[in-house]
Amino acid sequence: MKTIQEIAYHIRIDILKMLNAAGSGHLGGSLDLVEIFTWLYFKEMQHRPKEPDWNDRDRLVLSIGHVAPVLYASLAHAGYFPKEELLSLRQLGSRLQGHPCRNVQLPGIELAAGSLGQGVGVAVGMALAAQHDHSPQRIFCIMGDGELQEGSVWEAFMSAAHYHLNHFIAIIDRNGVQIDGTTEQVMALEPLSDKLKSFGLHVEECNGNDFFDLENTFNHIKSIQNQPIAIIANTKMGYGVPEIEGNNQWHGKVPNNEEVVRFIQTLRK
Amino acid sequence: MKSWSCKALKATKEGFGEGLIIIGEKNPDVIAIGADITASVSVNGFAKKFPQRFYSIGIAEQNGIAIAAGMALSGKLPVFASYATFAVTRALDQIRISLCYNDVHAIIGGAHAGISVGPDGATHQALEDIAMMRVLPNMIVLSPCDATQTKLAVMAAEQCQHPVYIRFGRDIVPDFTDDSMPFTIGKAQCLKEGNHVAILATGHLTWESLQAAFLLEKDNIHARVINFHTIKPIDKQAIIDASTTGLIVTAEEHQTAGGFGSAVAEVVVENCPTPMLMIGVHDRFGESGPSQVLMEKFGLTAVSIAQKIKTALSKQ
Question: What is residue A251's predicted lDDT score, i.e. its pLDDT?
Answer without folding.
Answer: 87
